[in-house]
């Protein structure tokens, strides 16, 4: 199993809604990441988890709340989002933050629209 | 100065052409180098890792020049299916940095 699975694939939510994005990998990777990607732009790093602990938070607004319940799962809880938060949200994993020889494996992403 | 600089293109080339992309990086301590391909509205997928000695996979050749701090991707005999955005990704060991991506369109 060499996949990173993200659900849902598409999500439309209102500005007062609470929703969660989910990410799962079973490759034994110890680092997991959330990225946000707008059209025609590269992915922007949001959060990094290493060994289930939050390692990097790139000054992301508190309306985005990450959670790593175990080494295979990564969630992103969304609350009170703005229309400008509409984007493709990508989860990725790698063997380790410090062992980067093999790059990332990305999930297929959740396309989020905030209305 | 950005960690990684990449010409966004677009590159429009005819089928069968050879096309090359470069990506420069600022941190001389960078350790690992990759080329990713991203199709429209899809996730990035690893195309090739880039090794110091250079590496080739079919029509694709990747090279690393540590002295000048850049990596390159050469695509020979371009196919229509090569049309995509090509992202360079560089790791310093504790973080990955993305280039802006280069858009390639192969024209019949």
Task: Walk me through the structure.
Helices cover 0% and strands 56% of the residues of chain A. Chain A is mainly β and 115 residues long. In chain A, the strands form two sheets. In chain A, strands 2, 4, 5, 6, 9, 10 and 11 form a seven-stranded mixed sheet that branches. Chain A is globular, with a radius of gyration of 13 Å. In chain B, strand 4 (32-38) and strand 5 (45-50) form a beta hairpin. Chain B starts with a strand and ends with a strand. In chain B, 33% of the residues are buried. In chain B, the strands form two sheets. In chain B, strands 2, 4, 5, 9, 10 and 11 form a six-stranded mixed sheet that branches. In chain B, strands 1-3-8-7-6 form a five-stranded antiparallel sheet, with no helix packed on it. Chain B has 108 residues and is mainly β. Chain B contains no helices and eleven strands. The A-B interface holds A 41-43, 45, 48, 56, 88, 90, 94, 97-98, 100-109, 111 and B 31-32, 34, 36, 41-46, 49, 87, 89, 91, 93-96, 98-101.
What's the quick description here?
The complex is a heterodimer of chains A (115) and B (108). Chain A is mostly beta strands and 115 residues long.
The chain-level mean pLDDT of chain A equals 92
Q: Give the radius of gyration of chain A.
A: 13 Å
Assembly state: heterodimer
Report the portion of residues of chain A in β strands. over 45%
How do the SSEs of chain A run, as a string of H and E?
Answer: EEEEEEEEEEE
**What sequence of helices (H) and strands (E) makes up the elements of chain B?**
EEEEEEEEEEE
Largest interface: A-B, 22 and 22 residues
Biggest beta sheet attributes of chain A = 7 strands, mixed
What does the overall shape of chain A look like? globular
SS summary, helix count of chain B: 0
* Share in helix of chain A: under 10%
Structural category of chain B is: mainly beta
The number of distinct helices of chain A, counting runs of at least 4 residues, comes to: 0
Return residue spans of chain A where pLDDT drops below 50 for at least 5 consecutive residues. none
Terminal Cα separation of chain A, in Å?
A: 36 Å
Low-confidence stretches of chain B: none
**Helix percent band of chain B:** under 10%
Mean pLDDT value of chain B: 93
- Helix/strand/pairing class of chain A, anyone? mainly beta
* Overall strand count of chain A: 11
